[in-house]
Write a structure and sequence with these properties.
Helix 1 runs antiparallel to helix 2 (about 50-65) and helix 2 packs antiparallel against helix 4. Helix content is about 70%, strand content about 5%. The chain is mostly helical and about 100 residues long. The protein has helices at about 1-25, 50-65, 70-80, 80-90, 95-100; strands spanning about 30, 45. It has a two-stranded antiparallel ribbon with strand order 1-2.
Length: about 100
């Protein structure tokens, strides 16, 4: 029963947070204009991935607190936070690939 509640909670967090990020991105004009390399054909708000990352890490923290998974696995999964933060910054202000190399 605990897992079902956790899954539903993570889903609801990601759904609600995505809604608010989309509104903010549209209002602040954080929009990706499609080009020939794009996978979409209409202007799309950027930054929604952070909602999924936040929901994932909330779920991961609850799992760590209540279920006590292997500490090495917890920190391995937590290390993805660096990628999530850099990706979010790239969504808001495009980062040159040269900076990251």
């Amino acid at each position: 029963m605990y897992k079902i509640i956790l899954y539903i909670t993570v889903f609801v967090i990601s759904f609600i947070f995505t809604y608010f990020i989309k509104k903010i991105a549209v209002r602040k004009k954080i929009i990706d204009i499609p080009n020939k390399r794009s996978s979409h054909t209409v202007p799309t708000p950027r930054g929604g991935g952070i909602a999924l990352a936040v929901a994932w890490y909330v779920g991961l923290c609850f799992e760590f607190i209540f279920h006590k998974p292997d500490i090495n696995l917890f920190f391995a999964l937590l290390s993805g936070l660096i990628i999530a933060v850099v990706s979010f910054i790239d969504d808001i202000k495009t980062i040159s690939p040269k900076i990251l190399v």
